[in-house]
Amino acid sequence: MSDTLKHYETVLVFSATLGDEAVKAELGKLTADIEGKFNGKVTHQNVWGRRTLAYPILKSKEGIYALVQYEAPTGKVVDGIEQKLRINETVLRFLSVNREVELKRGKKGEAEKARRLKKQPAPAPAAPAGEAPAAPAAGA
Predict the structure, then answer these.
(1) CA separation, residue 27 to residues 30, 43, 76, 81, 101 (Å)
(2) Which burial class, exposed, middle or buried, applies to 5 when counting CB atoms under 10 A from its CB (0-12, 13-18, 19+)?
(3) By the 8 A CB rule, do 13 and 65 touch?
(4) Which fold has domain 6-101?
(5) Given its phi and psi angles, is residue 49 left (phi above 0), alpha (psi -120 to 50 degrees) or beta?
(6) Is the pLDDT of residue 113 over 80?
(7) Distance CA 91, CA 101 (A)
(8) From the CB of residue 78, how many other CB atoms can be counted at a distance below 10 Å?
(9) What is the average per-residue pLDDT within 94-101?
(10) Is the pLDDT of residue 1 over 50?
(11) For residue 5, pLDDT beyond 60
C-alpha cells in the first residue's frame, strides 16, 4: 500500500429485521471488499445497535446502526463501496465521509471560534456588594 493513505468513515443503517449475526455477516462482506478489492484496511468497526429512526424509511421505523472506519490509497474505494451498498437490500441508508476533510473543517471551526472570543471585549467588573454603580459621566 502507498504511504499516502486517506481515511474514510461510513455509517450504515441496516434493516431492523436483520439479526445480530446477519449484521456481522454484512459488515464482514464490506470489510472483505475494502481489504480485498480496494487494497484498503479497516481500522475500526462498531455496531451501535437498534435505534428508532427520525422518520420512516421504506416503512421501517427502526434500524440497526453501524460505523466502519477505513484507510485506502484512493477515493475509488468509496465509490465502489457505495455502489455495492446501493444495491444491498438490507441497507436502508449510508453516509461516507473523508475523515481528513471533516477533521480540518472541525479545526477551522475551532480556530474561528477562538478568534471571535478574542475579539469580544472583556466584561466590565461588577461593583462590590454594598456599593452603588458609578454614575455615567455628564455629556455621554
Answers:
(1) 5, 13, 19, 12, 24
(2) middle
(3) yes
(4) Alpha-Beta Plaits (3.30.70)
(5) left
(6) no
(7) 25
(8) 21
(9) 89
(10) no
(11) yes
Query: Three-state SS across 74-138?
Result: CCHHHHHHHHHHHHCCCEEEEEEEEHHHHHHHHHHHHHHHHHHHHHCCCCCCCCCCCCCCCCCCC
Coil, helix or strand at residue 25: helix
Q: Taken in order 94, 41, 36, 20, is the CA torsion positive or negative?
A: negative
Q: How far is CA 8 from the centre of its chain?
A: 10
DSSP element (H, E) containing 62: strand 60-72
User: Three cell numbers at 80?
Assistant: 465502489
Could you tell me which residues come within 8 angstroms of residue 91 by beta carbon, excluding any fewer than 6 positions away?
A: 12, 13, 14, 15, 26, 85
What is the rounded distance in angstroms from the CA atom of residue 12 to the CA atom of residue 27?
Answer: 10
Q: Which amino acid is at 115?
A: R
**Number of other CB atoms surrounding residue 113 within 10 Å:** 10
In angstroms, the CA 108 to CA 30 distance is 32
> Could you state, in order of their start, the residue ranges of all structural domains in the chain?
6-101
